[in-house]
Amino acid sequence: MLGYDWPRLHAALNDLPTALLLVAVLFDLAALATKREGFRLVSFWTLALGAVGGAAAVISGLQAEDHIEHGEAVHRVMETHEKLALITLGVFAVLALWRIVRERRMGQGERLLVTLFSLGGLGILFVTANYGGRLIFEHAAAIPSRVLQAELHERTEGHEHARGEQAESPMRDTTAPAPAGHVDPPGTPPHTHPSGTPPHKD
Question: Domain spanning 6-148 has what CATH number?
Fold first, then answer.
């Protein structure tokens, strides 16, 4: 699909609805605080667009699950991420429909109730995003095994190279030859050396 596989498409579709839903809740709070109609309209449209974008993100995520190599640990995190994403989508979809039907007839109490539900949905959204981040940053999900193995091999080689560079101190002159012998201090009593000892001055 346009050069994307499902995991990459899911990653591409995640950010915009998250930002839109966050902005919707913030403008909803601003509208309650200031009673400004403009803030309320921004909140309404960003909520509607965020819910549509959230549906696209969830659909792509469900498809991506079948295209990711994973073990049991990743599967558990993935299942939790999926359940939270569906709950988040459900909350904001209901809120969007609620406002589409009731937007022009809401009283102050009803708007406050909608805002409270929005804040709850935003909290679930953050937890959902946290589990999605765990899939990538803790379990390297969506990275094929062969790519991950190649990357680990390169990191190991890079680490050994860096350690070798640290072992060569920049202050050390590695071209200077080692001394051929030694000089005894004055007053040293005569002594003999085993055969093969390099020549030196007594």
Answer: 1.20.120
